[in-house]
Amino acid sequence: MMYLWKEWKEQSRAKGMWLCLSMVVLSSIFILIESISLPVAQGFRVFLLSLYDMNLFILPLLSLYICSFSIMQEKEQKTLLILLSKRESYRKFIYRKTLAIQGVTVSLFIGWYFILMILVKFFFPFDASAFLVFLVTSLVLLLIFNQLGVLLGSICKTRMQLIGANIFTWFTIVFILDLVYLYLLPSVNGSNVKTFSTFYFLDPIHTLHFYLETGLELFPLDHLSRLMAKMIWLKPIQFLSVDLIVWLLISLELGIWFHSKGERS
Q: Which residues make Cβ contacts (< 8 Å) with residue 8, sequence separation at least 6?
């Protein structure tokens, strides 16, 4: 609780998180205004998909910056040194810090989506199951990129390094990997489709979009080609769960490992 309260006080006093939240709020309202003209029957689901597509470009970068600079601030203000000098291991610190960062950022951003749904109900019939799918997708997106932010904050030594690392990570995951998969796609066949699928769905951007579209019933799984059926060898929720576990664990352990390696050096 001490870490959670400390994180909330630091983030609430800073302008960064409020600026980030305001960007999400403005983009959400803009998407809602643009979606008002949609047919009522499918309008709510299409709105949620459009909202996610918009947030996909800004939420990861905002998460990376908020979380990575929270770790950097601990280093610059020497509070990390004080905590570690009290016989608290870095692993214990990073676990507690991660829970605090995740708790504060996820509560704020997810809280906004609940407020947004109050506005949406004036324009579209509310669908609780569709909103739950959207909420889970947004939650996993935040958790993964928050943890990557913690990793980058642990690795980088200066703010300039951190800014470059954040932009590189965001650009690589959101844009570059897509180009790589598009380049490899023509060579996919029955013999290598499962290998391609494994790497394809380990990319959280692909898995999250796939889970959202199937959950909103905008991507039916009943009429797939043989090749596509082989590619989708797990249920969407299973792909999502694997991604969440793998990315959180790897990011967490790499952050601890790089810090320990730097101390030994």
A: 100, 104
C-beta neighbour count of 47 within 10 angstroms? 23
Please identify which residue in the block is written with the tokens 């080609």: 225
CA distance linking residue 15 with residue 145, whole number of Å: 20
Cα–Cα distance, 262 to 153 (Å, whole number): 13
Q: Which of 97, 134, 128 is nearest to 112 (CA)?
A: 134
pTM: 0.92
Whose tokens are 């996909």? That residue is 56
The distance between the two most distant Cα atoms of the chain, rounded to a whole number of Å, is 61
Listed in sequence order, the residues at least 6 apart from 130 whose beta carbon sits closer than 8 Å to its beta carbon are: 44, 45, 48, 215, 216
User: Over the stretch 175-207, which tens digit does the pLDDT of each residue have?
Assistant: 899 899 988 888 888 888 889 999 999 999 999
- Residue 147 gets the label, from left (phi > 0), alpha (psi -120 to 50) or beta, of alpha
